[in-house]
Amino acid sequence: MKNILVVFCALFMLCAFMAEASSNFKCQLCEAAVTYVKDEINKSGVEQNIENDLLNFCGDLGSSVEQDCQTFVKNYFPELWTLFLNELNVDEICTDLDLCTNSSSK
User: Fold this and answer.
1) Residue 18 — very low, low, confident or very high, per pLDDT cuts 50/70/90?
2) pTM of the model
3) d(CA 80, CA 15)
4) Cβ pair 42, 8 in contact under 8 A
5) 34 with 94: CB under 8 angstroms?
6) What percent of the chain has pLDDT over 70?
7) How far apart (Å, rounded) are the C-alpha atoms in residues 34 and 94?
8) 4 vs 59, residue with greater confidence
9) In percent, how much of the chain has pLDDT > 90?
10) CA 58, CA 51: separation in Å to the nearest integer?
11) Nearest Cα residue to 51 out of 64, 68, 37
12) Which burial class, exposed, middle or buried, applies to 50 when counting CB atoms under 10 A from its CB (0-12, 13-18, 19+)?
């Protein structure tokens, strides 16, 4: 799990240096989060553990992005989980959340 968090952290930090809150930033963050969730569900299958892991991960990012990350998780995780359980793929989930367009992260 630590390796996944390191990869997620690297992706998040890369996105954080992009234009502030651009639609591409939101899309990439969504895709990274959905990919993380998909990897973790195969291991544990426990919704609350995954949400807690994501929130804890946000705390490890540093004060400059911690609040934005936690707000993202709190606002989107319940809907992301529901969409995920309906077996939508990463692109479909992030598009349904209006965080990506069909081509925004490509």
Assistant:
1) very low
2) 0.48
3) 20
4) no
5) yes
6) 70
7) 8
8) 59
9) 11
10) 11
11) 37
12) buried
